[in-house]
Amino acid sequence: MKKEITLKDIAGYSTERTVWQMILNLSAHGLIDKISNITPHAVAIVGNDFLLKEISLIETDSNRAFAAPETFNKNTESNSEASAIWTLGALAFYVITSTNVFEGKGGETQTELTEIPRISSVYASSDLSTLIQRCLCFSPQKRPTIKEIRQKAEAALNKYVEPRKRLVSHTGKSYAASLVKFWPEEMIPLLLICLLLLSSISLPAQSLQGVDKTVIPNEMASLVLRCIDLRSSQNAGKVSRAMDRDMNWTMMDELPVDKAGECTTKDAVDMFGLNDMGFGILKRHGGVTNSGGRFRDGRDPRYKYSFIEITVKQSKSVRYSISGREGEQLFAVVPYDKNAKFEVMIRKDGKDIKGSVIDGVSYIRLRQGIKKSDTFTLTLSNHTGKNMAFALINYNSRNNE
To answer: Is residue 165 part of a domain?
Structure first.
């Protein structure tokens, strides 16, 4: 018997057009009043259509993550059209990012002051991201109407929508039958890495605190190139598949938020979408979560490579206290804008080590043996004149090399 496909199966792999089609199907007359609080398991995919399974067949897993805030208030109507619209927004958020909004708590802890996360431009157009945000408003009166939702979905489907992520299987598609397609999409990054490592032109050692191309590990070079690729949303599918196959990394999620320098969801900033991508991949591979719902972390002894995406306000700096590393350390900082003006500094034992920007990427190397008990401070200053996203990548040798 053929396996039934549901929203659960395509989360994180969907194109934007797929999400618009889901929104259009589920907002149909006579169906919208049935979707309040449902989960991704309840929506079956048949051909190009999204259908609500029979109530008797719907799995009884927790629906908390997809329940509107009024659902948790016994004094309000929880099966209204507005509640269904909130659920529709939560389903769309999940299908795009493969993560639950509000860390799986749904609307239970949401208030009028709760910031609604905005989906990165890597994954969704401004029209789709804005519509989902409005669907997830705390106040039912501020949510869009079904008529408006259907109009926007129909308009989006009637024009070309650039796919932000491609629909692929969990194991990746087979390239054996199409070497022509395989070469440009998957071999170019490998070719660039080979050229990077084999080039006879070396970077000046003093410019990178003792780092030249021959000592940049293959995996770090690969991660840097993937971040550069993510400057274009068209490469998101390619990078996601490459990251999915490469499990030598983890998220650097132990870094505390710098409230003074980091952007909030209210600040306009273009992003790589690296955190959402990494989080989704780790979740599919059974990563270990901490209490915040994210994956840890750069201190994990199973991994030498870790990364995180940071957004820094214009003319601001962020500072992070880093510990738990061992052995030689190499950091790379990749800005979203290749022409960004920024500065990276590490302070260790009262001494400052300044990174040098080579081809738009800043590298800093700590050659002396770092102990797990050591702590050093990394400062990243944004001089670009606008809010900027940066990918921070760490190679942690752990004294194994």
So the answer is: no
Token duo for residue 4:
């039934």
Residue 393: strand, helix, or coil? strand
Domain boundary among 157, 191, 220: 157
SS3 assignment for 142-180: HCCCHHHHHHHHHHHHCCCCCCCCCCCCCCCCCCCCCHH
**What is d(CA 291, CA 286) in angstroms, rounded to the nearest whole number?**
15
Tokens of 361: 């990427």
Q: Is residue 89 part of a domain?
A: yes
In the block, which residue shows the tokens 């190009």?
48
Is the CB of residue 280 less than 8 Å from the CB of residue 12? yes
Q: Rounded mean pLDDT of 41-58?
A: 76
* Domain presence at residue 392: yes
Owning domain of residue 225: 179-396
| Position 83, amino acid | S
Number of domains in the chain: 2
Q: Are residues 287 and 152 in the same domain?
A: no
Co-location of 228 and 330 in the same domain: yes
Q: Choose from 59-68, 70-79, 274-283 the range with maximum mean pLDDT.
A: 274-283
- Counting beta carbons within 10 angstroms of the beta carbon of residue 307, is it exposed (0 to 12), middle (13 to 18) or buried (19 or more)? buried
Confidence of residue 52 (pLDDT cuts 50, 70, 90): confident
pLDDT value at residue 184: 44
pLDDT of the residue at 138: 93
> C-alpha angle 355/189/205, rounded to 5°?
30
Residue 163 maps to a domain:
no
**DSSP states of 267-313 as a string?**
S------HHHHHHHHHHHTTPPB-TTSSB--TT-TT-SEEEEEEEE-
